[in-house]
Amino acid sequence: MGKPRGGEKDRKKERYYQAAKKHGYRSRSAYKLRQIAKKHNLLKGVDKVLELCCSPGGWTQVLRELDPGLRIVAVDLSPMPPIQDVKFILGDITSPDIIGKIEAAIEGTVDLVLSDCSPKVSGTWSLDAVRQIYLAEHTIELALRLLTKNGKVLTKVFQGQGFQEFLKSTRTKFKSVKLVKPEASRSTSAEIYLVAKGPIRKNIG
Ligand SMILES: C[S@@+](CC[C@H](N)C(=O)[O-])C[C@H]1O[C@@H](n2cnc3c(N)ncnc32)[C@H](O)[C@@H]1O
Q1: Contact 55, 33 (CB under 8 A)
Q2: Model pLDDT for residues 133-162, shown as the tens digit of each residue
Q3: What's the CATH superfamily of 8-199?
Q4: Nearest residue to 173 via CA among 113, 116, 128, 125
C-alpha cells in the first residue's frame, strides 16, 4: 500500500472528484466524511465540534449541511474561505500555544473532534507517513484535553511506520477504537480513519 497512483488527468476523471465539483464541495474528501458520519452516526448527540486541519473546508461544508445548528471551531495552517458561523483559527495544531487559542474559541468542551491532517508532501513516502502520524498523535492529545466524557474523535492516519504503535497507544486512551475505510477513500491509498469514543483520563479521580 502506498501513495495514490494516477496523474492529474486520472484524478479529474474520478467519480468523487466530479461529484464534489458538481455539488460545490471544496474537496473530494467531503464524501469521506459524509460516508463515515452516516455509517457511524457520528453527529448523534453532538452540539460542539472541533475540526483540525480543515482547509479548504470540504468537511466543514458537510458538517454545516448535515446539521445547520452545530457549533464549529476549525483550525488549519492555511486560510479557509469563510463558512457561516464557523470560528476559524489560523494556526499549527502541533504548536504549544494552539490549545489556549482553541479553548478561548470553544468556551468549554467539545462533543466531537475531527481531523483530516496531511503534511506537505515531501516526495518520500516513509517520511510523509511519519509526519502524518505525528499530526494524528497531536489530534489525540488535543481530543483528550477537550472532549466531553462520552466524546468522540475521528482522525485520518497513514498506515506507515509507527501506525501499529499509534493504534496500540490510542486503544489505551479510549473506551472504544475502530478503524474505518470509507468508499470515497481510494483503495490504493494508505490512509485509514480511526473513530475513538469515550476518553479515558487516568489522572482524573
Ligand atoms: C487533506 S487537507 C484537509 C482537507 C479537508 N478535510 C477538506 O475536506 O477540505 C489536509 C490539511 O492539513 C493541514 N495541516 C497540515 N499540517 C498542519 C498543522 N501542523 N496544523 C494545522 N493544519 C495542518 C493542511 O494545511 C491541509 O489543509
Answers
A1: no
A2: 999 999 999 999 999 999 999 999 999 999
A3: Vaccinia Virus protein VP39 (3.40.50.150)
A4: 113
**One of 156, 168, 173, 202 is an active-site residue; which one?**
156
* d(CA 56, ligand 1 centre) in Å: 8
Dist. CA 113–CA 48, nearest whole Å: 9
Q: Tally the residues of the chain.
A: 205
Give me the half-sphere count of Cα atoms (radius 13 Å) on the Cβ side of residue 70.
29
| Look-up of cell digits 498506515 | 159
**pLDDT one-digit tens code per residue, 77-95:** 999 999 999 999 999 999 9
Ligand 1 atom closest to Cα of residue 120:
15
| Residue 33 Cα to chain centre, angstroms | 9
Which residues does ligand 1 sit against, CB inside 6 Å? 26-27, 29-30, 53-59, 75-78, 92-94, 116-119, 135
pTM for the whole structure? 0.94
Phi, psi of 159 (to 5 degrees): -85, 70
The three three-digit cell numbers of residue 111, written as one number: 462533543
